[in-house]
TrEMBL record:
Homohexamer. It comes from Flavivirga algicola. The keyword Cytoplasm applies. It is found in: Cytoplasm. InterPro entries: DRTGG, P-Actrans_bac, P-loop_NTPase, P_AcTrfase, P_AcTrfase_dom1, P_AcTrfase_dom2, Phos_Acetyltrans/Butyryltrans, PTA_PTB. Residues 214-324 form the DRTGG domain. It comes from the Bacteria. Pfam families: AAA_26 (PF13500), DRTGG (PF07085), PTA_PTB (PF01515). This is Phosphate acetyltransferase. The N-terminal region seems to be important for proper quaternary structure. The C-terminal region contains the substrate-binding site. Keywords: Acyltransferase, Cytoplasm, Transferase. GO terms for molecular function: phosphate acetyltransferase activity.
């Protein structure tokens, strides 16, 4: 079940607040604790609160610290994007959302307002955020003063754009012409006929009209009278430029009167008309030119029994009138009438029971790299482990160490001469505080003699002498591995400089494999755009036989499950199902049978081709009864040649992040790096090693 919903609009003034308020009321009726989050808010003056957040938190009395309800302001996001730090934006948004998700049963997430010109970037950002939070989306549009075809076309385009990356649960079109409700809903359902909830809400005049307070704020006005009536709605406005006897016949219900501040006749006449049974009620009076009525007039007004807001503004009547015409209605915390109307409108037009059922039963299949990396970090932080990095003279290792220490995610030991490592850190300007790490030179370590003696005892049956043991223990890979064996470290990451064989040999000699495991193998976590796939074995075993291939599949499935990925195993071959013949495909078929015999509950399919394993359409065509075809999360390659080339091809052609190789089958975690690894590769591999250590 999803623990959140993302409300995204596709244009300005869509009436998104109506949907958010209605949803919040619906959710609070279904579950006890509902959180609220806005990833990006508008830029604000110092000390000012975001209106959306203030309204929701105040009306529903939500117990959330204001600073935890948003991640960034608009300008902060644009600055980070311009610096090429878009990933940092998403990471912080995920972190903030996850903190709320832990506290609340459900979180309502409200997207941006589309209040600026760059709508394409804004649409992309909303899709990116909802995708990385793994949330279904409600799309909100508006139909005010639009032809039916224009509304339907824009909604369909938005739906098709969003559904490329996220699930759309509902589409709500606000402010529709009341006469077009039925026709608009029919046309939308004809265009979008995939089960998505379609709702059309008519334009509600009281929600579309700004209040006197909103107009006063937009104009920077000074309230002279009528402070208690600032929430009056202004359904229209007119300028008092003619003589009073002519102007009075133009007054309309809930009109805003606009007149120069020295037109006492218009001001007093409008106020008298407001309390007269023979004229409509007015919403307020705007006094232009920065002019304030003379003292006798103010005294007369003050003595009236009922005074609508009188507001003095700077600027000429023409400019002020033009500005008022462009002011859009908003909903704010003090205007309880609009909030109540919004909730009632939502409940009247939205099938809340059906929408709630869809929310409760929704499960996202999207699992982005950012989500995966966030989950890894949180798991590592829960139980901090000690990792040794033997290659202390490599710049990438030192930079990764700085990043790891800054995140407080692991304790680190770096092997090498302390003076040389400190010199490199200073020379390369690496922000690594050496007081926060252990730096050990193997031969100078107080444990060196003990490690050498231990290695001698473990390997003397292989004709290893004590002197040979000392020479061997001077090697950083052996020393680091012995730290793990003796319990002085929990895991090791190497390979930025050394070969796989150099990294793995010590582990095989004395850490050895887990009980019941005969083979050390490897997987890569392939972080694709919308999912994480496990590829094995792409680094260790050149040409495994059927029994070894089965063991690789079982180990890879276990690794996937340990890292929160449901294992659906595809045993890859050049043939799918029973159609293929030949030694290579028979090996895969036999391996699949071995796995099924040993793990009857494991979801596995083989032999199966790569496209049928990952593409639902092709999978249904080739293996229609398979629960793995089209949904495979663990892909087992028949040999190293195929696996290594495939992972590199996928990585290069799709831009996927490949984390690994992650070694599996050892009693204690030792992981190998590619010699072409990046700082981020080392960082991710250390975190994975720490998590593996938690599971030992």
């Amino acid at each position: 079940m999803s623990k959140g919903i993302y409300v995204a609009t596709i244009e300005p003034n869509s009436g998104k607040s109506v949907v958010v308020l209605g949803l919040m009321r619906m959710l609070l009726g279904k579950t006890a604790k509902v959180g609220y989050f806005r990833p990006i808010i508008e830029d604000l003056e110092a000390g000012e609160m975001d209106n959306h957040i203030n309204t929701v938190m105040s009306h529903f009395e939500l117990d959330i610290n204001y600073k935890k309800t948003f991640a960034y302001t608009r300008n902060q996001v644009l600055d980070l994007y311009n610096q090429g730090k878009s990933g940092e934006v998403i990471d912080e948004i995920i972190k903030k959302y996850k903190n709320l998700e832990e506290r609340f049963d459900f979180v309502l997430v409200e997207g941006t307002d589309f209040s600026h010109e760059n709508s394409s970037l804004e649409l992309d950002i909303n899709i990116l955020i909802s995708k990385n939070l793994g949330l279904p989306v409600i799309i909100v549009s508006q139909g005010d003063k639009k032809a039916l075809k224009e509304i339907v076309d824009s909604v369909q385009l938005a739906h098709d754009t969003f559904t490329q990356d996220v699930d759309v649960l509902s589409i709500i079109t606000n402010k529709a012409n009341p006469d077009d409700l039925s026709a608009l809903k029919t046309q939308l359902k004809e265009r979008i006929n995939n089960g998505t909830n379609i709702t059309v809400i008519p334009k509600i005049p009281s929600l579309s009209s700004p209040t006197v307070k909103e107009i006063s704020k937009a104009l920077g006005g000074e309230v002279l009278f009528g402070q208690d009536m600032l929430n009056n709605l202004t359904e229209n406005f007119s300028v008092g430029a003619m003589q009073l006897r002519n102007y009075l016949i133009h007054l309309k219900e809930n009109a805003l009167v606009i007149a120069p501040g020295d037109r006492a006749d218009i001001i007093l006449g409008a106020l008298q008309a407001n309390i007269s049974k023979n004229y409509p009620k007015i919403a307020g009076i705007i006094l232009t030119g920065g002019l304030i009525p003379e003292e006798p007039i103010l005294k007369l007004i003050e003595g009236l029994s009922s005074i609508v807001p009188l507001i003095s503004v700077k600027g000429g009547t023409y400019n002020v009138t033009s500005s008022i015409g462009s002011i859009k209605a908003r909903i704010y915390a003090e205007n309880t009438e609009k909030i109540t109307t919004s909730i009632a409108t939502f409940e009247k037009h939205v099938d809340t029971d059906r929408l709630a059922d869809k929310l409760i039963t929704f499960e996202s299949e999207v699992f982005t790299p950012r989500m995966f990396q966030y989950n890894l970090l949180q798991r590592a932080l829960n139980d901090k482990k000690h990792i040794v990095l033997p290659e202390g003279y490599d710049e990438r290792v030192l930079r990764a160490a700085a990043k790891l220490i800054n995140a407080h995610v692991v304790d680190l030991t770096i092997l090498g001469e302390e003076d040389r490592i400190k010199e490199l850190i200073e020379k390369l300007d690496i922000p690594l505080n050496t007081d926060e790490i252990n730096i050990i030179s193997p031969t100078k370590s107080p444990h060196f003699e003990d490690y050498a003696n231990t290695f001698y005892e473990l390997r003397k049956h292989k004709n290893v002498t004590l002197q040979m043991a000392k020479d061997t223990m001077a090697d950083v890979s052996y020393f680091g591995t012995m730290m793990i064996y003796k319990g002085h470290a929990d895991g090791m990451v190497s390979g930025a400089v050394h070969t796989t064989q150099h990294t793995l040999r010590p582990a095989l000699q004395f850490i050895k494999t887990k009980p019941g495991v005969n083979l050390v193998s490897s997987i890569f976590f392939m972080c694709l755009e919308d999912r994480i796939s496990v590829f094995g074995d792409c680094a260790i075993n050149p040409n495994p036989n059927a029994q070894q291939l089965a063991e690789i599949a079982i180990s890879s499935a276990q690794t996937a499950e340990e890292f929160g990925i449901e294992a659906k195993v595809a045993m890859l071959s050049y043939s799918s199902g029973a159609s293929g013949k030949g030694a290579d495909v028979e090996k895969v078929r036999e391996a699949t049978d071995i796995v099924k015999a040993q793990n009857s509950d494991l979801k596995i399919e083989g032999p199966i081709q790569y496209d049928a394993a990952v593409d639902m359409r092709i999978g249904k065509t080739k293996l229609p009864d398979s629960e793995v075809a089209g949904h495979a999360s663990v892909l087992i390659f028949p040999d190293l040649n195929t696996g290594n080339n495939t992972y590199k091809a996928v990585q290069r052609e799709t831009g996927a992040l490949a984390i690994g190789p992650v070694l599996q089958g050892l009693n204690k975690p030792v992981n190998d790096l590619s010699r072409g690894c990046t700082v981020d590769d080392i960082y991710s591999t250390v975190i994975i090693t720490a998590i593996q250590a938690q599971n030992q």
